[in-house]
Specification:
It is a single chain. The protein has 13 helices and 14 strands. It starts with 6 loop residues before the first strand and ends with a helix. The protein is about 30% helix and about 20% strand. It has about 400 residues and is an alpha/beta fold.
């Protein structure tokens, strides 16, 4: 497939200044510039895609201008030891309608995933997560979505798809191939008890901001289980990320956001990432663009520090623990990686459904193992088991 038909090249005056600066990321990344050939994706690991689409935004018109502003800050950062296997495909030519843009984004992601390339989407509004999700339909894969967001974006059934309702559209989408959804950092006064109860009934995972910030290491197994990570910049407090029409006083600190994204990058399971709702109009000295650039830097750093220790592929580098739960008449099998000391637990697939095979090993933490030793059922195990039924 010729992906070049979907993209506008980057402005040469802005992005051709890094050729002689060999220690910056702008030198490492191969970019689609004015007057140059579209880059080949053969052998590429990561592909940056600008999607300046904000027709689905709610109270944040102008986030369409974010991709190039983030790039300016990203390419000025030091490159570390990243190999030269990252490309920037340029900015998407927007569709005549919003749904045309969704279709284009999905098509591009499918092609990249088939080539083993992880797309990094610079939004645009967060409803583009819907396009991330529908790409996997074409691959006939059940997926886990993790959204870092101050709210759930469920909307109502009557509401058209937008940045506040895309999750509801994903849940109702047919055919449905969403195995699990996890929200990280919701703020209760933005969601209400009825939405929290709905998430529980759907056996989705939702983690309050205070709960997450109290023990940030517990975020790692959550994002390690993600195929798709969608990061709404409004999850970060206004003092750290003012560039958003819906910014509020509370949220993650910038360094916490970077840490979450690095955890995601280190996961062998993650196959697409999107960062959304950055709006240069509201920004202060490009502070939000700076932070987004640093988050992407940490995603790349995490990617190139992957341990390749997924138990599904081989169990030879793992220590196996069996923990019987007598009162539940159940035994939980845990695996601990000898390479990274990360933990997984085995969840039965009682009906042997093929579409759930890749989900029967659930990332967890040492705390889940401790919970099982007390003969208590870990919440992660129980919720995954309910979905298998």
């Amino acid at each position: 497939m010729d992906l070049s038909i979907y993209f506008e090249p980057l402005n040469r005056q802005l992005f051709d200044q890094y050729r002689d600066q060999k220690n910056v990321l702008g030198h490492v990344v191969t970019k689609f510039l004015d007057g140059e050939n579209f880059p080949s994706i053969e052998g590429v690991h990561l592909a940056i895609i600008g999607v300046g689409e904000d027709r689905g935004s709610v109270r944040n018109d102008g986030c369409c201008n974010a991709p190039d502003r983030v790039r300016e800050k990203l390419y000025a950062l030091k490159s570390g030891k990243f190999p030269n296997q990252i490309i920037d495909l340029g900015n998407l030519r927007l569709g005549e309608s919003l749904h045309d843009t969704y279709a284009a984004v999905s098509t591009i992601i499918v092609e990249l995933l088939k080539q083993g390339v992880l797309p990094i989407i610079l939004g645009g509004s967060q409803d583009l997560t819907f396009a991330q999700y529908t790409a996997y339909q074409q691959l006939e894969e059940t997926v886990n979505i993790v959204s870092v967001d101050a709210s759930f974006d469920l909307g109502t059934t009557e509401e058209p798809i937008n940045s506040n309702s895309f999750l509801g559209k994903i849940v109702l989408h047919e055919p449905n191939f969403l195995f699990n959804f996890s929200n990280i950092g919701y703020q209760t006064y933005f969601v209400g008890s009825d939405q929290v109860e709905l998430m529980e009934r759907l056996y989705f995972d939702a983690y309050r901001l205070g709960q997450v910030r109290a023990d940030l290491e517990e975020v790692e197994p959550i994002v390690r289980n993600a195929d798709i990570l969608s990061f709404d910049i409004t999850a970060i407090r206004q003092s750290d990320a003012p560039g958003n029409g819906n910014a509020t006083p509370n949220g993650f600190y910038g360094e916490e956001a970077c840490r979450i994204v690095r955890y995601a990058g280190m996961s062998d399971k993650l196959t697409s990432f999107g960062i959304y709702e950055i709006n240069p109009f509201f920004d202060n000295h490009d502070q939000t663009s700076h932070l987004a650039a640093q988050m992407i830097w940490y995603l790349i750093d995490g990617y190139y520090n992957r341990k390749k220790d997924v138990p599904l592929k081989s169990k030879t580098d793992f220590i196996k623990y069996r923990v019987p739960l007598k009162k539940d008449d159940q035994e939980i099998v845990f695996y601990k990686s000898s390479r990274s000391e990360r933990w997984w637990m085995e969840v039965p697939n009682p009906n042997n459904k093929v579409r759930f095979q890749k989900h029967h090993l659930v990332p967890c933490s040492y705390k889940d193992y401790e919970t099982a030793l007390r003969e208590e059922m870990p919440e992660r195990w129980w919720q995954a088991f309910q979905k298998m039924g």
